[in-house]
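Course assignment 3, question 2. Fill in each field.
Student: A.L.
Task: Predict the tertiary structure for the chain below.
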Amino acid sequence: METYDALLASITPDTGDTRTIFDPATGTAVGEAPVHTVADLEEAIAAAAAAQPAWAALGHDARSAALLKAADAVERSAEELARLLSREQGKPLNGPNARFEVGACAAWLRAAATTPLEPEVVVDDGETYAELHYKPIGVVGAIGPWNWPMMITIWQIAPALRMGNAVVVKPSKMTPLSVLALAKVLNEELPEGLLTVVSGDREVGARLAEHPGIGKVMFTGSTAAGRSIIKSSADTIKRLTLELGGNDAGIVLPDADPKAIAEGLFWGAFINTGQTCAALKRLYVHDDIYDAVCTELTAVAGSMPMGVGLDENNVLGPLQNRAQYDIVAGLVDAARESGARILIGGNPDLDQPGHFYPATLVADIDNGNPLVAEEQFGPALPIIRYSTIDEAVAMANALDVGLGASVWSPDLAAARKVAARIEAGTVWINKHGAVDPRVPFGGAKQSGYGLEFGVEGLKAVGVPQVING
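Answer field:
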């Protein structure tokens, strides 16, 4: 285990171009990140290709053992990683934030290491015998986002490594230090060259997506960027896993208890200060309990402290960057001007340092309002009335994205019937965004394709091979 200063120093480059990373809560400098080039990417891919065959030859048991040791290494440096994450991304240490994210890294590493994947006998009828196996792809490219930079990187690299691949990671330019530090810790237990982080600009990401030495790209980010990756990868017929933008709907049925569900609704929407692809971003509430849900949600929102992440008291932080702050502020201002009612928030302190936007609830808003129809990706939740279940389902399904959704009711059978009608990759009951390393996760419509987590996630980073005979 290293001290925080030693960990940061270990990823600070001695030579080459660098870029200063600033704390979104205070505006102070966090550290210097390398600005890698396409030439650096080429070296990383060559090293990965050289390291991969020996790693694949170890077999599942030895690779799993190495990943379990890597999980132990993450836990040994957990507090230092969480502190760096908090300073760079902005999320507080406590609540479902920085310490939670680092803990999830260890949990997903262990899940990838211990999930069994046996050859599947698909036919055995006395005449034909056929087995389905999964072989390594080779070198996987992982392109990650700035909202959960460590956890989503682990979602990408842990199953890829378990299946015998090498990985080259391209982190967001907003949060490269967190990913560089995580990789440094993981590499204490991994062969040299197997896992490399290339912290470059857009041209590095574009080259990664088109590079003939990359057999698969895993990407989490916007739908627009996903389209570009699809086009760039086409010439080399790359395999893709894409987790793209979402605008998740939640439907509260009329028999729900507003007080009982208020905190679950709040964290479904405001986890990571709303900066989560599968967060609750538009809430549909039946007329019968609309006012009560608004009242209870407002009370919960008003009790959640927001501030600098290293303050142990805070559970909400700033927006990670000014561009995202401006998007949220613009959508809330437009909703207010359209006649929607601001229940709480919507009044940022413009004299405060950092990209802080208060937790905001917006009621009596039209379903076509941009705050509803566009993904805000921040701490502002629109609450829309409905009268019939058919109306709510139609509004929930009206958009061209479908990452997640949720239904809220004490009647599980009724909730499941509604859930089955929603066009989304995952529909949660009485919770939202609760991912589990054992349960497959992926999007519908323009929220991407491919599955992560569990057995299906392992298969997604392998090449299927049928042995027939």
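Instructor remarks: The longest strand covers residues 129-136. The radius of gyration is 23 Å.
Grade: pending
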